[in-house]
Write a structure and sequence with these properties.
242 residues, Nucleotidyltransferase, domain 5, 2 domains, 6-stranded mixed sheet, EC 3.1.-.-, 3'-5' exonuclease, RNaseH_sf, exonuclease
Length: 242
């Protein structure tokens, strides 16, 4: 049987923050803008008063075809059995261009045979990263390659999926899981709905990166809470600055 604590060192916890590709719908290249307006019309079909292009700023960042990755936070756990200590080492990837950010992140994924773990990662983080890499001309690193693999060969963990226990109708926010497991919130200064404004208007990447890293920590703590062990370990967090 694989030791739970030993297996932790193989898991890369991650979270991504995304924003609309442009600050204004008017800046979007014409062909892409036309596609967005078609998509927006479908999204707004129950709203008789909607103005074409009015939802771009608030909603485009959700979709990889119209958004961009602006921050990737990661963390991995080191084990110190003697002192009953787990250390979560975290790092954030942020760069002047999305392509540079994704290439830096790809380099990390290629250093080790990682299992990726994110909250709602299978529906959002993993496919979003994969799509944006291809759009930016970056080949997919092995942990994000899914074509031709059997389900058990895909090393992806998702705390949302784990919490569903097979109930595919049920969605649970990371913040709710943090609340019920008494884990400190990551939403003190920022939440997901404010990221686009913080990026395009406030231009405060430091604030976004800190929020991203806090979500990585919360995800790791939720994963640990979902796997209670007879031997409790203390978790400390160390951010890697370089």
């Amino acid at each position: 049987m694989v030791d739970f604590f030993e297996s932790l060192s193989e898991i890369l916890f991650l979270d991504i923050e995304t924003a609309s590709g442009y600050e204004s719908i008017d800046e979007v290249p014409e062909r892409v803008r036309e596609e967005w307006l078609k998509k927006e019309e479908l999204l707004s079909k129950t709203d008789a008063d909607y103005e074409p292009g009015s939802q771009y700023f608030e909603r485009a960042g959700i979709y990889a075809e119209f958004g961009q990755v602006i921050s990737v936070g990661v963390g991995y756990i080191l084990l110190d059995r003697e002192n009953e200590l787990l250390t979560l080492r975290t790092k954030v990837f942020s760069a002047p261009s999305e392509r540079e950010l994704l290439e830096d992140f790809k380099a990390l994924l290629e250093k080790k045979n990682w299992t990726l773990c994110a909250h709602n990662g299978k529906e959002f983080d993993f496919p979003y990263l994969s799509r944006r890499m291809l759009i930016n001309g970056v080949s997919l690193p092995e942990p994000l390659q899914m074509a031709g693999k059997k389900p058990w060969e895909i090393r992806h963990l998702d705390t949302l999926e784990l919490w569903k226990f097979g109930d595919y109708k049920h969605y649970t926010r990371l913040e709710l899981l943090a609340s019920i497991f008494d884990i400190p919130s990551s939403k003190d200064d920022l939440d997901g709905s404010q990221v686009n404004h913080t990026y395009h208007i406030e231009k405060d990447m430091e604030k976004i990166n800190k929020y991203c890293l806090r979500d990585v920590e919360v995800t790791a703590r939720v994963y640990l809470a979902m796997n209670p062990q007879p031997q409790p370990f203390t978790l400390e967090v160390i951010a890697i600055e370089e």
